[in-house]
TrEMBL record:
Protein name (database record): DNA helicase RecQ
Family to which the UniProt record says this protein belongs: Belongs to the helicase family. RecQ subfamily.
Gene Ontology biological process: DNA recombination; DNA repair; DNA replication; SOS response
Keywords: ATP-binding, DNA damage, DNA recombination, DNA repair, DNA-binding, Helicase, Hydrolase, Isomerase, Metal-binding, Nucleotide-binding, Zinc
EC top class named in words: isomerase
Keyword Zinc included in the entry's annotation: yes
Cellular component aspect of the GO annotation: bacterial nucleoid; cytoplasm; replisome
Positions of the Rhodanese domain: 225-269
Domain Helicase C-terminal: 214-364
E.C. no: 5.6.2.4
Catalysed reactions, as listed in the record: Couples ATP hydrolysis with the unwinding of duplex DNA by translocating in the 3'-5' direction
Amino acid sequence: MPAAATLLRDIFGFDAFRPGQEDIVNAVAGGRDVLAIMPTGGGKSLCFQLPALMRDGVTVVISPLIALMRDQVRALRAAGVEAGALTSGNTEDETAAVWRALDEGRLKLLYIAPERLAAGSAMGMLRRINVSMIAVDEAHCVSQWGHDFRPDYLRIGELRRALDVPLAAFTATADAETQAEIVEKLFDGRAPDTFLHGFDRPNIHLAFQAKDGPRKQITTFAAARKGQPGIVYCGTRARTESLAQALREAGHSAIAYHGGMEADARRAVEQRFNTEDGLIVVATVAFGMGVDKPDIRWVAHADLPKSIEAYYQEIGRAGRDGAPAETLTLFGPDDIRLRRAQIDEGLAPPERRAADHARLNALLGLAEALECRRVQLLRYFGEEAQPCGNCDLCDAPPATFDGTEAVQKALSAILRTDEWFGAGHLIDILTGKVTEKVRARGHDGLPTFGVGRDIARPMWQGIFRQMMGHDLIRPDPDRHGALRMTDPAVPILKGKAQITLRRDTLAVKDRRPAVKT
Ligand code: ADP
Ligand code: ZN
């Protein structure tokens, strides 16, 4: 059976599971009957699509919305997966192609509209082919109490009995009556493995800091948690070594871990981490899969993670025992540049690259958030929450200012120099600094020269970083990382939209006391 994590990356192009997905995927792939309750947008489809690829035979997917089915089939095909749909919207050719793929045993996922189950031919056909499992999307449609009742859904139970295969049911509706009815109608009352997780991990304190001497920021954070087991995630292998060294010099017990190490050496680190008190592992993302330590008290990111999903997964390794745990994520313009470049230089097709940029934007939005981080994080996964009182922004709301004018000045400096320069030179222009480069290019003659004198240089650096975080400007890999304006910046430049920025991101320091255990 192909490994779930490999398929996740190679077929779907995701670097990490979303909350809850991995457990559900394992149960479904293992042939269990499953009822999974996840918020809309939480990533349900992956929970049956991925197991469908791991199992032999065809997965039959029943979904109430034809448009949705067609979208999913199109996306799966684009990813190289054999999928087809039998719906009333099909052309004859499409239907013939699906039958052929079924006959030839090629199809992995067959989407069927529930009303097709009423037609005897579909039932007969499904009995003849090698069906490995049934997946039911929007399973609450089987419930007569709900507002989405679909009489045809009642036939699914019949189908399951006829085929005698595992069934996985998915819904976003969590109330007890609906759940009970799903169990009764789809599973004949035999309790399936049920997954109902909120995504929140309330014991984990969330914090971000703009990079301002990362080595010092990490050692300061660790010093306040001395003797407590923690993980420091780094973007590169070299950095794991140098940061582990710095932590040892500061008197911690710290060790590096990365994918370039021999398997034996890696296992030895995992072993030490599980058994030794207060060890810090300084690692690349390669560290984590084999770690099942419930009392990790803190996780720090010395470099920005790849995506919001990766962030959630990595901080989620802390505090599995439910006791308070602390996290700190550092981010800076170089991280943003690196992550953008990794996406742009990757081999992924354009749509996937756009989606990767969007996922990175979600994480940057979280980094530059103005209000409760947890509210924003959970909203991304489809869950509404109240301000948590356990994140840096709830602890100390940031000072903000109307950044519209400053952003307009910065954008105009970018445009007047034809989008060919990086932040350093642009800030020289804005603050009216006559450097050799400024003089050589004649930039001291620009109308924007010196218009930002009222703002100090470090503050400008923060503004440029926040502009990158809000995706108003992007480094162009074909222009040595020169900053270019993006479409969302246009309304701000034209004075049609405003933007609020944080004043303090450069000056925040770790003021939280260490967790007492
Ligand atoms: P729903 O739970 O509403 O059916 P979907 O399955 O349509 O949600 O997923 C919502 C979005 O989340 C889709 O755009 C999907 O590509 C994305 N998604 C799902 N799983 C992941 C993941 N592990 N990492 C990143 N994005 C994901
Ligand atoms: Zn909060």
